[in-house]
Amino acid sequence: MRGKLDLGEQPLVLIWEVTQACELACKHCRADAQPRRHPDELSTAEGKALLDQASEFGDGQLVVLSGGDPLARGDLPELVEYGTEQGLRMTLTPSGTNSITPERLAELDDAGLRRLALSIDGGDSDAHDTFRGESGSFEATMAAAEAARNLDIPLQINTTVCAETVEQLPAIRDLVADLDAVLWSVFFLVPVGRGRVLTPIDPERAERVLKWLHEVSDEASFGLKTTEAPHYRRVAMEQQDEGASGLKRRMGIRAGKGFAFVSHTGEVFPSGFLPKSAGSVREESVVDIYRDSPLFQQLRDDDALTGKCGACRYRTVCGGSRSRAYATTGDPLAADPLCDYRPDGFEGSVPDQHPAD
Questions:
Q1: 23-37, 41-55, 122-136, 343-357: which has the minimum mean pLDDT?
Q2: Where is the Radical SAM core domain (predicted)?
């Protein structure tokens, strides 16, 4: 385990969307994935150059290969192997399709894959497949999870939280435990891509869910983290009564601050849910973009936040979802409309969760 990172110098997570091609048409898809690969995707050589750049962040940099469905690329094992040789921790988030065969997983395992992340958005096949828009997706996901377990590949489960899935969370928690997953990553809906047609839960419900997730984390055999709900850290601190010491201990990871995303065409975003480009890896290093671009530097400045996020004592450990702020207001520094917490003395208004025009 690496020591505490300097989030101004290195992201905790670097995601590379290797393709937007995918067989599925999931309701929540951030990428608005398409059946065919884009002709301007980063090539194998350009992908290796990106991995070379990523290794300059430091030994053990975590790289997540995502999509679309990354298995739509035939060079995926080559990329995993190359990244592993550069000292990167290579992980994968495929789609729940029949492309995830035991044979392909074994090939990726041999190439050095460190973790497999699968999405489960319902406690059974009916709920999951309805949300995913594809019959058989749940069955394919379960088969992939079993294949990963047989290969001793650590398994992560990703779940989207919105009005359509929130009642399924207890059943999904049970599945995560049954699958011997090492981590449950709970994504709170950001209205981008196809996700614009889904219904977010309201802030009061989100607060209750976050408190419940904290209870789950205390009891579960697996780890738990949230994505695009950094106020989970504030809830955890309140539940544990950590006070000022907790403010100093916890890192405020959010879009652009500990997190970076490279699109299939090489554009660098603070997050896949915050599609505001800071540059292209075809023109400059992802390291320089992350460290020096005005957008990333601004997002890492806790004092630049506005509205109730800027007034909040928890802004250094939370700071709100910059992606949701951007999606709903057009301003990545605005208040996160999903958070129910109101700082003492703050009298301003809070934006709603409808996507910005």
A1: 23-37
A2: 8-219
Residue with tokens 């802030």: 203
Non-local (6+) Cβ contacts of 107 within 8 A are 77
Domains of the chain, start order? 13-298 (3.20.20.70)
Q: Write the CA distances from 312 to 233, 234, 262, 308, integer angstroms.
A: 13, 11, 30, 6
Q: Tokens for 214?
A: 């904290």
Q: Comparing C-alpha atoms, which of 143, 75, 145 is closest to residue 117? A: 145
Whole-model pTM: value is 0.91
Given its phi and psi angles, is residue 219 left (phi above 0), alpha (psi -120 to 50 degrees) or beta? Answer: alpha
| Distance from C-alpha of 331 to C-alpha of 31, rounded to nearest angstrom | 20
pLDDT at 250 over 70: no
Q: Does pLDDT of 334 surpass 80? A: yes
pLDDT higher than threshold 50 for residue 1 = no
Please state, as a whole number, how many other Cβ atoms lie within 10 Å of the Cβ of residue 39: 6
Q: What's the pLDDT at 195?
A: 55
Lay out the sheet containing 89-92: strands in order across.
Answer: 223-227, 183-188, 155-161, 115-119, 89-92, 62-66, 13-17, 259-262, 268-269
Q: Provide CB contacts within 8 A for 80, sequence distance 6+.
A: 65, 90, 92, 108, 111, 112, 113
- The pLDDT-based confidence of 98 (bands split at 50, 70, 90) is confident
